[in-house]
Design a protein that fits this description.
globular, fatty acid metabolism, alpha+beta, disordered N terminus, 5 domains, 8-stranded mixed beta sheet, disordered C terminus, transport, membrane, 7-stranded mixed beta sheet, mitochondrion, 42% helix, 16% strand, single chain
């Protein structure tokens, strides 16, 4: 009851002597400090709105323009060429102000208009600069003079430190490609997969489409592009993600791993405390717009807006993304119970040690789950329509509504897992696969898959992340997770016994248990949703392996792009695994354009197929000097319904962290972080790869056990062999390279 009394700011009783009023100054002080924090955030938002509204100029530049205009007028010169006099004639205060005051006010109005015109001109120039993309096609070491001038001008316009959203209004809109170009690229992408007769039929169909329905649809698309900020992204979000009625677990949500070789602490509560703190520090940077939108060149930052305090709510026909401006708490799941954990106290963020203390109180809480509470999260893992119906029927009022609101309004979701995971024990490879599956789906009820992201803290201190896909693409979340892991390990740190640093305010109110009233009908639906999710999870064949034979360092010595090298290796591996070629989807972001999301890179081309067949047949291999790796990538329009047999992702998620190994000051240890989603076709593969430094590449392969033609481990062996064979070809070293497919045990 102590925390209940602390939560009351004042109480009064009626006595024979009158009203006895008792004030809780501590509670009132907490209310005051919370209000101060709220107003500080409002002022900060207003300030940032002004700063980014005038970018690339600055608010202080108005004063410079005004002083310059007044100075020229003082020297009896009229820089406005008569406009100031005309403004003075139309001023509503011309009868109440003196002549000098009217002149001064007219000059300030003219200065403001001139200043706004200069801002619009600068913004237009910046937009034109950002519309230049030929720099992407420059040869390494041979940069054209045009690109050099462009770089210099871009630096000149961007010399002021931008806020996170400063470039948004200057980014160009995504252009609508000509329908003839779209169809030409489509035919080029399917050419290696069709016979001559099939290609002729497809060409006739494309020509017929262009001359009939295609041109009409193209006009509608151009019309939308005139008024929409981005003519693709809203449809992409709606029809690719939100309208899907199947489970988002596995099919849409993706995961991010912890460091593979290092665990900063084995204390579960301490790891949770630092991780939560790091995430909230990142949220503070997002709110204050302190993150830079520039990755060599400016990128669209719109996806950062819904990173926190966001959830995907189910609907009968389509889901809806809900976002709240702020949230002072997170929701924690542990052994079937849900807790609301307040992360602010009196307007200040709790210290990592205080958060550890609060998490430990949850771990030590012996109370059992409410009836039906333990597996309630399965509703978010199953089909969307039953979840939408149950939400409307049982979560519209009462205690269920309040508890569900707490989860959905939380900054993010936290799972305290009672298992141990990671690359550990006598079977590190198998444990790594199990670690990946745990992050992807867990027990199918101990993650809240609707949240923008959920973090998982395992019993042995390992952590990970599961992210919902509709609100943003993986690179946005990867940057968040990179910052979180780096801040956790290298900035916040731990004591020698593995606990968080800092002190604990013992008067902190404990985390609040969320209450539920789950009737039998709702429990029955939870069981049905859980059965659907478990069947889906059991079908996931996930294989993770680090490739250590070489990395980007040796690949670059062959004067080949590491990404191109891996892409052609994947084509070779698939050819050996399945005996043919297939549609290949490689994700590519379009954040060079405003509100850009994802495009498709078709890495299976006629040239890549020719190379693979030549390598297998040894028809054209003569010497190192003659062997050239052919990799032509064509960027296509996003697909709407085609299933890709081979899905590849991860090209933009490469980063490396270095730390000193404890006890060995001269040594350095690599830390690998991975983001992975599953395959998009039932009979295909999903492959994610991360280039880790100079001498390692980490691969994640997924497929389905129910497909007799796929095997993730078998594909992993083929991929390893393909990498070695192509390297032997390029380096002129035949050792380790042999013709044919590698042998693996059937699954």
């Amino acid at each position: 009851m102590a925390e209940a009394h602390q939560a009351v700011a004042f109480q009064f009783t009626i006595t024979p002597e009158g009203i006895d009023l008792q004030l809780s100054y501590q509670a009132l002080n907490q209310i005051y400090l919370s209000g101060v924090r709220s107003w500080k955030k409002r002022v900060s938002r207003m300030k940032n709105r002004v700063i980014k509204g005038v970018y690339p100029a600055s608010p202080s530049s108005w004063l410079f323009v005004a002083i310059a205009i007044l100075a020229t007028m003082y020297m009896q010169s009229d820089p406005s060429m008569g406009l100031i006099s005309k403004i003075q004639q139309h001023l509503p205060l011309r009868y109440t102000c003196g002549a000098q005051g009217q002149t001064m006010l007219s000059a300030l109005v003219f200065s403001t208009l001139l200043w706004l015109s200069l801002i619009l001109t600068l913004r237009l120039c910046l937009k034109l600069l950002l519309s230049y993309h030929r720099w992407m096609f420059e040869l390494h070491g041979k940069v054209s003079n045009t690109t050099k001038v462009w770089v210099s001008l871009l630096r000149l316009f961007s010399r002021r430190k931008p806020l996170l959203y400063s470039y948004q209004t200057s980014l160009p809109h995504l252009p609508v490609p000509a329908i003839k170009d779209t169809l030409s690229r489509y035919l080029e992408s399917v050419r290696p997969l069709l016979t001559d007769q099939e290609l002729k039929r497809m060409t006739d169909l494309a020509n017929d489409f262009e001359s009939t329905l295609g041109n009409r649809l193209q006009r509608y698309l151009k019309l939308k592009a005139l008024w929409a900020t981005n003519y693709v992204s809203d449809w992409w979000e709606e029809y690719i993600y939100l309208r899907g009625r199947g489970p988002i677990m596995v099919n849409s949500n993706y995961y991010g791993m912890d460091f593979l070789y290092v665990t900063p602490t084995t204390v579960q509560a301490a790891r949770a405390g630092n991780t939560i703190t790091a995430l909230l520090l990142y949220r503070r940077k997002v709110n204050k717009e302190e993150l830079t939108p520039v990755r060599n060149i400016p990128l669209c930052a719109a996806q950062c807006e819904r990173m926190f305090n966001t959830t995907r709510t189910p609907g009968a026909e389509t889901d809806v993304l809900q976002h709240w401006l702020d949230s002072d708490f997170v929701v924690v799941y542990h052994r079937g119970r849900y807790f609301r954990l307040w992360v602010y106290r009196g307007g200040r963020l709790l210290s990592p040690r205080e958060l550890e203390h609060q998490i430990q109180s949850i771990l030590d809480d012996p109370s059992p789950p409410f009836p039906g509470e333990e597996k309630l999260g399965a509703l978010t893992a199953g089909d969307r329509c039953p979840w939408a119906q149950m939400r409307k029927q049982f979560f519209s009022s009462g205690v269920n509504r309040r508890s569900l609101d707490a989860i959905e309004r939380a900054a993010f979701f936290v799972t305290l897992d009672d298992e141990e995971q990671g690359m550990k024990g006598d079977d590190p490879a198998g444990n790594l696969d199990r670690y990946a599956k745990s992050l992807l789906h867990g027990k199918c009820y101990d993650r809240w898959f609707d949240k923008s992201f959920s973090i998982v803290i395992y019993k042995n201190g390992k952590n990970g992340l599961n992210a919902e896909h509709s609100w943003a693409d993986a690179p946005t979340v990867a940057h968040l997770w990179e910052y979180t892991l780096a801040t956790d390990a290298f900035h916040l740190g731990y004591t020698q016994d593995g606990h968080c640093k800092g002190e604990v305010e013992r008067s902190l109110p404990p985390p609040q248990r969320l209450a539920w009233d789950i009737p039998p009908e709702l429990q029955a639906q939870v069981c049905r949703s859980l059965a659907v999710a478990q069947a889906l999870a059991a079908d996931v064949d996930c294989h993770v392996f680090p490739f250590r034979e070489f990395g980007k360092g040796r690949i670059k010595k062959c004067r080949v792009s590491p990404d191109a090298f891996i892409q052609i290796s994947l084509q070779l591996a698939h050819y050996r695994d399945r005996g043919g070629f297939c549609l290949t989807y490689e994700a590519s972001m379009t954040r060079l354009f405003r509100e850009g999301r994802t495009e498709t890179v078709r890495s299976c081309s006629s040239e890549s197929c020719t190379f693979v067949k030549a390598l297998e047949g040894r028809e054209v291999i003569t010497s190192h000097g003659d062997a050239q790796l052919v990799t032509f990538f064509k960027v296509k329009q996003p697909e709407s319904s085609t299933f890709f047999i081979l899905k590849i992702s991860g090209a933009s998620l490469h980063f490396l962290m270095w730390v000193k190994k404890p006890g060995e000051p001269g040594c350095e240890m690599k830390l690998m972080v991975t983001f992975v989603s599953s395959q998009v076709a039932d009979d295909g593969y999903g492959v994610s790869y991360i280039i880790v430094g100079e001498d390692m590449i980490n691969f994640h392969v997924s497929s389905k056990y129910s497909c007799s033609e796929t095997d993730s481990r078998r594909f992993g062996v083929q991929l390893r062999k393909a990498l070695q064979d192509i390297m032997a070809l390029l380096s002129g070293d035949p050792k380790g390279s042999s013709k044919g497919s590698a042998q693996v045990q059937p699954k």
